[in-house]
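Query structure, 105 tokens:
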């Protein structure tokens, strides 16, 4: 990185990337992280606002648990199911691409 300036403006030197161009900002990454943070905050607020005890019917009986525990488990199970779906869909897609690549050779 090189500082460029005419020396007369004091501390107003412009910092540029090698080659004279500024590096491209990967704004999508920041938006994605920001959205995940907002989602996490909203989920935490939802869980914290629901502290009453509820009865949860399971296959083998019933439990009395705070509602935020039941909601938290539902969120975790949903994330695991969604993540596993994306994982296996990506794996199937990569397998199909490898098969097509092998066939083209």
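Result returned for the query:
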């Amino acid at each position: 990185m090189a500082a460029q300036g005419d020396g007369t403006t004091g501390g107003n030197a412009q910092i540029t990337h090698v080659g004279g161009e500024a590096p491209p900002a990967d704004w999508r990454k920041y938006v994605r992280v920001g959205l995940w943070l907002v989602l996490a905050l909203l989920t935490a607020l939802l869980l914290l606002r629901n502290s009453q005890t509820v009865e949860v019917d399971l296959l083998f009986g019933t439990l009395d648990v705070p509602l935020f525990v039941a909601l938290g488990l539902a969120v975790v199970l949903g994330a695991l199911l969604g993540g596993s779906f994306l994982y296996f869909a990506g794996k199937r897609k990569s397998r199909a691409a490898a098969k097509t690549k092998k066939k083209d050779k």
